[in-house]
């Protein structure tokens, strides 16, 4: 069974919290290997995945609920549109910061709702980020 595809199921307790799925997807994209993410909470809840794919991430959308991430691939800077989901916008930012070059994340105002000084805090720890 070591060759089985690992999966993370986002669902109500005791499963993985669906709000954290975009952040874990971003981490999985940077790690080597394959993993399936299954959103059991929201119909079409993975609608933000195509924006992550603009960085060159290899993701197979199995259906509106499941995606397979093929991690460890080289990513490229991109211009992406952040969804109105705070953690998905943060996941796009995480990936952009992990890539050499300049990326642009449009419509990321959703982050300011929960984290008004998000860019400032990242700058404090050395991130090259500009909020305009």
Automatic annotation (TrEMBL):
<dbReference type="GO" id="GO:0005737">
    <property type="term" value="C:cytoplasm"/>
</dbReference>
<dbReference type="Pfam" id="PF00275">
    <property type="entry name" value="EPSP_synthase"/>
</dbReference>
<dbReference type="GO" id="GO:0009252">
    <property type="term" value="P:peptidoglycan biosynthetic process"/>
</dbReference>
<keyword id="KW-0808">Transferase</keyword>
<feature type="domain" description="Enolpyruvate transferase">
    <location>
        <begin position="7"/>
        <end position="122"/>
    </location>
</feature>
<dbReference type="InterPro" id="IPR001986">
    <property type="entry name" value="Enolpyruvate_Tfrase_dom"/>
</dbReference>
<protein>
    <recommendedName>
        <fullName>UDP-N-acetylglucosamine 1-carboxyvinyltransferase</fullName>
        <ecNumber>2.5.1.7</ecNumber>
    </recommendedName>
</protein>
<dbReference type="GO" id="GO:0008760">
    <property type="term" value="F:UDP-N-acetylglucosamine 1-carboxyvinyltransferase activity"/>
</dbReference>
<keyword id="KW-0961">Cell wall biogenesis/degradation</keyword>
<dbReference type="InterPro" id="IPR050068">
    <property type="entry name" value="MurA_subfamily"/>
</dbReference>
<dbReference type="InterPro" id="IPR036968">
    <property type="entry name" value="Enolpyruvate_Tfrase_sf"/>
</dbReference>
<dbReference type="GO" id="GO:0071555">
    <property type="term" value="P:cell wall organization"/>
</dbReference>
<dbReference type="InterPro" id="IPR013792">
    <property type="entry name" value="RNA3'P_cycl/enolpyr_Trfase_a/b"/>
</dbReference>
<comment type="pathway">
    <text>Cell wall biogenesis; peptidoglycan biosynthesis.</text>
</comment>
<keyword id="KW-0573">Peptidoglycan synthesis</keyword>
<dbReference type="GO" id="GO:0008360">
    <property type="term" value="P:regulation of cell shape"/>
</dbReference>
<dbReference type="GO" id="GO:0051301">
    <property type="term" value="P:cell division"/>
</dbReference>
<keyword id="KW-0133">Cell shape</keyword>
<keyword id="KW-0132">Cell division</keyword>
<keyword id="KW-0963">Cytoplasm</keyword>
<comment type="similarity">
    <text>Belongs to the EPSP synthase family. MurA subfamily.</text>
</comment>
<keyword id="KW-0131">Cell cycle</keyword>
């Amino acid at each position: 069974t070591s060759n089985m595809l690992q999966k993370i199921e986002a669902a109500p307790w005791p499963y993985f919290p669906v709000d954290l799925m975009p952040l874990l997807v971003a981490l999985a994209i940077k790690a080597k290997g394959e993993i399936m993410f299954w959103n059991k909470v929201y119909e079409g809840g993975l609608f933000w995945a195509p924006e992550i794919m603009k960085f060159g991430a290899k993701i197979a959308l199995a259906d509106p609920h499941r995606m397979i991430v093929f991690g460890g691939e080289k990513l490229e800077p991109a211009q992406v549109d952040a969804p109105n989901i705070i953690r998905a916008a943060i996941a796009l930012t995480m990936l952009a910061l992990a890539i050499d070059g300049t990326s642009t994340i449009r419509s990321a105002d959703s982050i300011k709702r929960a984290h008004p000084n998000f860019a400032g805090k990242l700058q404090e720890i050395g991130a090259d980020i500009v909020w305009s």
